[in-house]
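ping. complex inputs:
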Amino acid sequence: MTETTTRRTIEVALGTSGLDANGMPIRAPLVVQGHNAVALEGTSTFEPELDSDHMLINIGPQHPATHGVLRLVLELDGETVVRCVPHIGYLHCGFEKIGEYRQYNQIIPWTDREDYLNSPGNNVAFALGCERLFGVEITPRCTVLRVIAMELSRIISHVVWLGTTSVDMGAFTPFLWLYQERENVYNLLEAWVGARLTTSMTRVGGMAADIPDGWLDGLRAFIKGFSKTLEESVKMLETNAIWAGRTVGLGAMSAEEAVNAGLSGPMLRASGVAYDVRKDFPYMDYETYDFDVPVGTAGDVYDRFLVRAEEMRQSIRILEQAVRRLPDGPVNIDDPRLILPPKHKATSEMESMIHHFKLVMEGPRPPAGECYVAVESPKGEKGYYMVSDGSAKPVRWRIRPPSFVNLSAIPRMVEGHLLSDVIAINASIDIVMGEIDR
Amino acid sequence: MTAPNLPAPSSGTAPDGTPSTPRGLPHRGGALNPSADALAERFGDAIVRSEATWGETTVFVHVESLHEIVRWLHDEPTQRYDYLVDVTAVEYRDAMRPIEVVWHLRALGHRRFLRLKVELPKRGTLIVPSVIDVYCGADWLERECYDMFGIKFDGHPDLRRILLWENYQEGFPLRKNFPLRGRFSRAEQLKQALAQDPEARYSMNELTIAEAFDSLPEDMRRRLAADRARTGEEGVE
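pong. complex structure:
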């Protein structure tokens, strides 16, 4: 029985022990005496000879903690990550190629499916890009409706992030509370456009539908209920020792590093850079709304959590202002070259029928040109770069995917951390593989 | 065409200097980004031309000077383009037009946006300098551009396919001569997919770890050996 060297030293993070001066969880050495331990003469400090070889470990693509079909190949020294090689592309569908074969309004359903937690936001961003390309201005009512759609979509995305991340860290309750609020937003969207997840709610020059009667009351009720749920969920995590122990000090990026790596959204703001497209390159009159841009100091997973939580509060502020200022008037612009006539006119009036036919069969044609329109999506700077040669289909439709660029920094963030921290850091990036692989 | 009660046109900056929503942008012409003039003054002949479309400035540059220009835009205190938004390319349907490689840059401090373009004739080699030493965020963006268009980025340390798999044989999907459904028939695609060993999935880079080469499946060892013979890289054995 020479192999019974069962005396080992294990380090465990005691969830309730709090943090040390560096903000790291206090780890208390715990000596475990094996079940069949045999105290050998002179071997009380015996450590088994560790193999110095590094280990290769594969996470994903089918792994619940990778939030999609992400695959990480990790080189481990013991439990510490020495190198991380991410592999993506398992969900690649060629959206950009397909877009070159579709009219502008036909692309809108594709934008639903890239970042599927932010469908209304993508629809709005794409429509904004098209409108710049066509050189038209949308109506004031449409602008405010789109702001409401974008902020609701930001809330959905952050709620899903907070819920799934808390499950990753072992907290199940916020997940259930927050997913209920997500259902409430989807109910609102369903009442508005008839779809829940893939909304396709914008058109070039307007919206698919105006809000129904009484919808704003539903929105007000949601805002009231959601604020309460949000505060409860955040309060549950904010000062929780387990949550703090699993997030503080992990995956920190300095401000220069984050800017140089092209990070955007909450990832960048957690590092202390107050870059928000809504403030710095405004669109849809965001400069006239009163809201703050939260920034972090340490750039770690915990700060990203705080930034996202605060962003949801700011979204509520924007929603309240938007509800107050929503003007009456038409939603769609008055341009028969872009907007379909009402069905009853298309079947009874000659001119409307011609417009309808031309719009559906040929599609609207923008002048030759190009534009890059960026919006602040929940993940970061989401941009659409569109190039037109004057035909009804774009020459190039490029999606600037924020989570793609954010994820590309993951090797820098995880190297040097423990394997279990990789899950937390990966969750903090808030990736959606539909957007990364497109 | 325009709805009533719209605010006055604006170029993206209010009179007091704060950013505002751009409105009524001109299709062609309009004010150029001040960096375009600064570039023309500093680099002279390296700048082909500058133009403004829908309020955005595009500067066409020669490919030889691109890296120097990007470095200058990043480092020069009056410019400070510290944020690389995107690297991509455009191929037009007109077969005579060159392929354009596009860099979107932002100066976060000055709140400026600039588009740099390099025109590459289709008959020549599609190669441009990598800007990864200026912006480390260019890593995956350049890899994707290579994956989709076949444009090589000289100086990129790890330029391999990113969205498509390593030994994808059908070419570069966003090129205009690539059919929407792919080059191979469905039967051929299925045959190739079934012929692959699903275990053979680590890259050469990863296999340098832990002397894993000998324990590989036979077909992957063959493939890696063929790759090595083709590229002349040093192996792991």
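Chain B has a mean pLDDT of 82.
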